[in-house]
Design goal:
single chain; 102 residues; mainly alpha; 56% helix
């Protein structure tokens, strides 16, 4: 139901007027992209997911190195394990976020 059905008339400057009311500017949204962010919002969303992945993997690597040094392992068992868990977890969260938004 549009504004025309309610008695409003559109002027050339995207102003809607109705008899007895002041002029109000109403922003029209693009109906083809309804519900989906566009432009910079889309860029920020996906770059945020990338930053989250980098931080998670970096934290896993750092914690693994610290634990390997603390326990004195020659083979980096904790580093490899925590890196694999961080990569798997961050990929899972990234895919889940992308699928949720589509």
């Amino acid at each position: 139901m549009g504004f025309g059905a309610l008695g409003f008339k559109k002027s050339p400057l995207n102003h809607y007027t109705c008899k007895g009311f002041k002029t109000a500017t109403i922003l029209e949204e693009n109906k083809s992209n309804k519900g989906q962010p566009s432009g910079p919002n889309n860029f920020l969303k996906y770059s945020g997911i990338g930053v989250q992945m980098i931080a998670t993997i970096g934290l896993g690597a750092w914690a693994g190195v610290v634990l390997d040094r603390k326990f004195g392992y020659k083979i980096p068992v904790f580093t490899i394990t925590l890196l694999l868990l961080a990569v798997g977890g961050s990929m899972y969260l990234a895919i889940k976020d992308v699928l949720k938004n589509n």
